[in-house]
Specification:
Blueprint: E1 8-10, E2 24-28, E3 36-38, H1 52-64, E4 69-74, H2 84-97, E5 102-107, H3 112-121, E6 124-130, H4 136-139, E7 143-146, H5 155-175, E8 179-186, H6 195-205, E9 209-214, E10 218-219, E11 224-225, H7 230-240, E12 246-248, E13 268-270, E14 280-283, E15 300-306, E16 312-319, H8 327-336, E17 340-345, H9 350-358, E18 362-365, H10 371-378
Parallel strand pairs: 2-4, 2-13, 4-5, 5-6, 6-8, 8-9, 9-12, 14-17, 17-18
Antiparallel strand pairs: 1-12, 3-7, 10-11, 14-15, 15-16
Length: 394
């Protein structure tokens, strides 16, 4: 049995600065696209992304209820720089309304040199770059695919591109006044021998700190990855600490939970929550099992919510306004779902999402989700047990 990890800090001759403030670090999940697919991510479903306006509504709700928040982070469910327009819109909105909150993003760093000044203008104070290697040959063993744009690029080309982009991002961020932390997941036998060289290079480029994260166990028909033991990762931390302040993450619990392509820093994920006024969630589905309908095609919705005993169940199936009618259709839909805090769909246009958002309904888009699992996620991940099935379920 592996010894449990404790937080270990290995300092170089440089002095580490602490940005810790009292309050929660919350994550606004507005980035719906990703750049890569990790070779060691278990099969699963990506969490849904939310609109910037929904993110601000949720943030305002938390603050109005007295939640102490010190930092707002954009780090999922995809990569903030793969969905940079929504990321920047969100950061600007937060910075304009709550200038005292620290802002950060967690990203692979593709195109980071191009976006550095724009991010600084949004109020970003620091960035966490997810860099697991800078040698293209090592990078090729870490990812199934790398997609810098709309098309997947062959790994032989994309691995070099990713390394170059990440190395350019560090000095560009530093020059823009953004502090850089590098977060590296350690995969024994794949990139562990590469950590010392990585630490030296990122230190020279201006990174101020390095965080080493033990990988999660992973096994398939070709690969068997075991997390590094405490002695091995402590040794790597000590070596990295000769170049810059380095530390070991307390554990690996904050690693990829399903098919997330990047591993966010420890944070409270910002998804909409039920309230007394809006305890339910609506789902559009063609078969009652998969979230596979675009909102524009849906003529009915399943409504889930808690029973008197707290168990989440299908409460009703409601008819939705017929297609057509423009904005009036979505105003009517908002009234039909006036007791719902969220709506799950495979797709929805910006106009209906914005109208529903104004009425307090967050539209969550997921292209691979199953009804039960996604509803369960919104009610706390099964803490109250499995959902029951009642009338109207196909």
């Amino acid at each position: 049995m592996l010894a449990p990890y404790t937080t270990t800090v290995c300092f170089s001759s440089a002095t580490a600065t602490s940005a810790t403030q009292p309050g929660e670090v919350i994550n606004l999940q507005v980035a719906g696209r990703t750049f890569v697919r990790s070779r060691f991510a278990p099969e699963g479903k990506m969490s849904p992304a939310i609109l910037p306006t929904d993110a601000i509504n949720i943030l305002e709700s938390m603050l109005s209820q007295g939640t102490a928040i010190s930092e707002v982070q954009v780090s999922g469910p995809g990569d903030p720089l793969a969905d940079v327009t929504k990321t920047v819109e969100t950061l600007h909105k937060v910075h304009d309304k709550y200038a005292d909150l620290r802002l950060s993003i967690t990203t692979l760093g593709l195109y980071g040199d191009q976006y550095a000044k724009m991010l600084a203008d949004c109020g970003i104070t620091f960035i966490t770059l997810l860099i697991d290697a800078i040698d293209p040959e090592v990078i090729k063993n870490l990812y199934v695919w790398i997609r810098p744009g709309t098309k997947t690029v062959p790994l032989s080309q994309a691995s070099s591109l990713l390394a170059d982009e990440q190395l350019r991002a560090i000095p560009a961020m530093v020059q823009a006044g953004i502090r850089v932390i590098v977060r590296t997941t350690v995969y024994p036998g794949i990139n562990d021998n590469h950590i010392p060289a990585l630490a030296e290079v990122i230190s020279q480029l201006g990174a101020e700190r390095m965080i080493l994260v033990p990988c999660s166990p992973f096994t398939d028909e070709k690969i068997n990855i075991t997390p590094p033991d405490s002695v091995a990762i402590s040794s790597l931390c000590e070596i990295a600490g000769r170049h810059l302040p380095a530390e070991i993450a307390a554990d690996n619990s904050d690693q990829m939970e399903s098919s997330l392509e990047i591993a966010p820093s420890p944070t409270a994920t910002m998804l909409p929550k039920p309230s007394k006024e809006r305890p339910n969630v609506a789902v559009v589905s063609s078969n009652g099992i998969d979230i596979d309908l675009h909102l524009g095609q849906a003529v009915k919705a399943m409504v889930f919510g808690p029973r008197d005993d707290g168990l989440t169940c299908l409460l009703a199936t409601r008819a939705l306004p017929e297609p057509g009618g423009g904005g009036s259709r979505w105003e009517t839909l908002a009234k039909t779902l006036s007791d719902c805090f969220a709506l799950l769909a495979a797709g929805a246009g910006e106009n209906p999402r914005n109208i529903l958002s104004r009425h307090g309904i967050t539209t969550l888009i997921t292209t691979e989700g199953e009804v039960d699992g996604m509803v369960d996620l919104l009610y706390g991940g099964g803490k109250k047990g499995k959902q029951c099935r009642t009338e109207g379920r196909k």
